[in-house]
Every structure is written in structure tokens, then in C-alpha cells.
Amino acid sequence: MFDDETTARPKAGRSANPGSQSALRMRNQLRVTDQLLRGGPATQAELSRMTGLSTATVSNIVKSMHTAGLVSLTPTTSSGRRAHSVRYVGDSSIAAGIDFGRSHLRVVLANRSHQVVAEREIPLPLGHDATVGIAAAAKLLEVLLAENGISRSNLIGAGAGIPGPIDRRTGKVIQGAILPEWVGINLHERLKSALNLPVFIENDANLGALAQISWGAFAAVPNLVFVKIGTGIGAGLIVNGALYSGSIGVTGEIGHLTITEAGLICRCGNRGCLETIASTATMIQLLSRDRSQPIDAEDIVRQAKSGDPTTLRVLEDAGTAVGRALATISNLMSPDVIVIGGPLATLGELLLTPVRRGLLRHAVPVVGENTTLATSSLGPRSEALGAVSLVFQHEPSQQTL
């Protein structure tokens, strides 16, 4: 670990050798830069904790970067004390974040300073195949670039996510995706060809987790679980500040944890999975009975907030089941925070209360009591923002340090 820096420079005409003080300073500045790109704005104290560099080292690096116009400083408070939020503003690079949903497509364009410069969501037909979805993404990307006067030369890559598992060894969508028409395709190659850009792909829940530590309120949280409750249920895991992908990239499939042995048969072939109890698809099916027209997720939110007893009971059962599944994860990894995302996140405590009840009932007491539950503050753009972060994590800083 490098924990010191100095302003000493090599003699004129000599390049810095790997062990020199100048090279050490350069590496330390790169570490600060990379952290700002990954995690977004942070105070100097937070940067010190997240990079492992001393506060004096970080202070000197930030001062130098501010003088060079690479970062901006905004007054803020941290732990009751005055501080400055440091934001990277170093170049004009733009990344695209693409979120493919069961019936929607969202594209976000953002810069390294974590500023969204363009964004749009459009509907996609239910049951659409990969050709339709990818073509729509390519077209929408070009529209956003043109409408906002962004040169394609500034676009350094695209991140993309789908609601389903992706085998990182092959880049293929595998069985279990909410988009069964996409199973078997090489999403990486297909999207790279259509966009003519470097492409990085992930499961949507993983991208939601990445967004929480790079765009949300949890940049300094080392261990976090993001749970997306939608047509399917998936979790993204942040372990020691980094996205956990396992051996083949398929992790967090909590929608297929068995909750009741005598339950309904799930689309995965097993019985009594969490998705058969707590997905929005299941809730919609239950609440649409005896209605001439089926409801949607927005109706669930509206009815719950108005105090409809049937809706609240469905949420109670679903939330308790989700909490039970999260207790299993919590007992294994003891996260600092669990964040609930998806279309029901705006329910706040109406959703969190039964989830918390299930968590506390089934987790080891000391784990459950020390795990914070929250709803995502990023709304429906969470996965697309995570996809933007994925690009910047893979793209090294272009700034000469």
C-alpha cells in the first residue's frame, strides 16, 4: 500500500522510474482519480478511507488536481464538520448506460463527473426478441447523441443490463431470464456489433447494486445487497466495495430460493420459489382477480398508499417472504446495508416494514439487528446508471497524471 507522496521530481531529461517518489505520487493520484470515477463525489476523509491513503496525501493530491482543473470542490458537512465534496471534472468522456426491461428500454448518457446529460425511456412490446431490443437501443442512442449535440468521438463505451443471468465465460444469456426470447444469444457480441462501441454487460440487479455505491447514498458502504423486486427478483452483491460476480458471473438469484416446499411451480422448474410469492407478477395476478382489466405495479403502489386492505395483505406476505430470503444472504455475508429497488420502492416503509419483520425473524439476531434496510433513491434509472459506472470502471483515466 502506498501511503506517502512528495513533490520531488526527477531531473530534467529523465523519466520517473517505477520506484521513484514522482512515480509514487502519480500512482496515488491515479488511485484517487479511479475512486472518484467509480464512486462519484466524496469528501477527502471518505477518499482517504476508500483508497487507504493518508489524509495528508489525499489533501495534497486534491489540492493539486483542483489547481489543474481536474476536480471541483463544493462545501458540505461530514459527521457534523465542514468539509468539501470532491467531484471529478477532468475530461469530456461520455458513457452510455442501457437498461433492457421486459417491456421497456432506458438509455442514459453521463460523464465522468456523474452528471446525466441525456436520458430517455421508451416502451418495448412484451415478448420482444433480442433483435428488436438491440435495434431500438442503437436507434435511441443515436437520437440522444444528435439531440444533445454530443459527438460520437466522446462516447467511450456502453454498459448494458438485462433481467436475467449472463454467463461471463461466453457472454450468453442463460436460462432463467425474464426475457426468454433472449436466452442463448451472445449479448456482448450482438450489442458491440450494433453500437460499434466497447460494450460491458451485466445482470440488471448487479448494475443496481453498482449504482448504489457510485450514484446513490452508499459510496462509503463496503458490503451492500441490492434487491430488485419486479417481474422477477434478483440481488446484486457488493463485497468489500466491489461487485461480487462469482466464478461464472451468475450470483444473487434469490428469486429462486425455496420459501415453501408446497408452493407453486416456478418458471425455473422448482417449487415454492420466492418469485412465486413476492414478484410483482404474482402480486398483480392476485390483485387482478375479479377485475375486468389487470392492474399494474403503479396500481399496487397507489392502492397500498390509499390503505387498500387486500393490497396491504399481499404486500405483507410478499415482504415477509423477501425478508426471509434476505436473512439467508445476511447470515452468509452480514451486509452493512440492504437496498430495495424496483417499481415498488416508492412505497418506503409500507414495503420495508414486512421485509424487516421477515429479516429479523429468520436472521441471526446480531446480524439482523445490525443490517440497515433502505429503499433505493435512484428510481427507475438505477440499472442504467449502474451500466454507466460499469463503463467507467473498465475505462482507465485518459488524463496524464
TrEMBL record:
| SUPFAM superfamilies attached to this UniProt entry | Actin-like ATPase domain, Winged helix' DNA-binding domain
Q: Which domain of life is it from?
A: Bacteria
Q: Which Pfam families does its entry note?
A: MarR_2, ROK
Can you give the residue ranges of the HTH marR-type domain? 28-82
InterPro entries hit by this protein:
ATPase_NBD, HTH_MarR-typ, ROK, ROK_cs, WH-like_DNA-bd_sf, WH_DNA-bd_sf
Spell out the residue ranges making up region: Disordered: 1-24
The record's family statement is: Belongs to the ROK (NagC/XylR) family.
Q: What is this protein called?
A: ROK family transcriptional regulator
Q: Give the species.
A: Arthrobacter silviterrae
The taxonomic lineage of its organism, from the top, reads: Bacteria, Bacillati, Actinomycetota, Actinomycetes, Micrococcales
